Amino acid sequence: GAGVSQSPRYKVAKRGQDVALRCDPISGHVSLFWYQQALGQGPEFLTYFQNEAQLDKSGLPSDRFFAERPEGSVSTLKIQRTQQEDSAVYLCASTRRRVGSPLHFGNGTRLTVT
Amino acid sequence: GENVEQHPSTLSVQEGDSAVIKCTYSDSASNYFPWYKQELGKRPQLIIDIRSNVGEKKDQRIAVTLNKTAKHFSLHITETQPEDSAVYFCAAKDFGNEKLTFGTGTRLTIIP
Questions:
Q1: Could you say which of A22, A84, B44, B60 is the most buried, measured as most Cβ atoms within 10 Å of its Cβ?
Q2: What CA–CA distance (Å, rounded) separates A77 from A52?
Q3: Minimal CA–CA distance to A49: which of A67, A26, A62, A65?
């Protein structure tokens, strides 16, 4: 009965380091989304999975960003060679079914690149 | 792609008064319009949503109106309370596209 769970809650990385952010969606939720939220801005779409299939990755800002959901449940967002502009809150959200379901968000991972 | 604009960016309202936040969207195919409330350091939470087959929806002190012709929708909060203070985001998408596009947010402050 838990909500969407994300870890770590906070991550500080030095520029150039790789990071991996984890999302545990609500059990039974087919669709999973990653959003990036810069300070004072609305969430920006990054990528979307339906089960294990990545159906839309049009929002990933560069080839340094990679997401996977190999078993259709837990998802990982990986950022390689982090840059300062990657500093943001990364939100994961899931929905039960494809059409018309509201997004349930996690608390996010706040990434700070120094 | 869809573009959602939201106004105002900040809004201060005396406790007990009403607050109105407005959004416009660009894609006429959009037919689902949710509103999210985000308190500082917390997750966005859905507070109300509307689909394009209705023009208005109400849930206690919160209401949303939709004008498809003009491509704008609004959030109305009546009898505001201090706990209504938060950032509110509107969003839009069509059912054929899973991507939800958000506005830039409105920081609502309720003055006791």
A1: B44
A2: 14
A3: A67
The closest of A77, A112, A45, A105 to B42, measured between CA atoms, is A105
* Interatomic CA distance for residues B7 and B45, integer angstroms: 19
Cα-based distances in Å from B104 to A2, A16, A82, B53, B83? 29, 29, 25, 25, 21
Beta strands A5-7 and A53-56, pairing class: unpaired
**Tokens 């939100």 label which residue?**
A91
| Strand order across the A5-7 sheet | A5-7, A19-24, A75-79, A65-68
Confidence category of residue B53, pLDDT binned at 50, 70, 90: confident
- What are the residue ranges in chain A where pLDDT is below 50? none
Contact criterion met (CB below 8 Å) for A60 and A47: yes
Whether B89 shows a pLDDT value over 90: the answer reads: yes
Is A89 within 8 Å of chain B by CB?
Answer: no
What is the pLDDT, as a whole number, of residue B8?
97
Q: Classify burial at B3, counting beta carbons within 10 Å of its beta carbon; exposed 0-12, middle 13-18, buried 19 or more.
A: exposed
DSSP B21-49: EEEEES-TT--EEEEEEE-TTS--EEEEE
The first and second tokens of residue B71, run together, are 């491509």
Interface membership of A10 toward B (CB under 8 Å): no
Mean pLDDT of B68-93: 96
A to B CB pairs, distance under 8 Å: 53
Interchain pair A105, B89: CB under 8 A: no
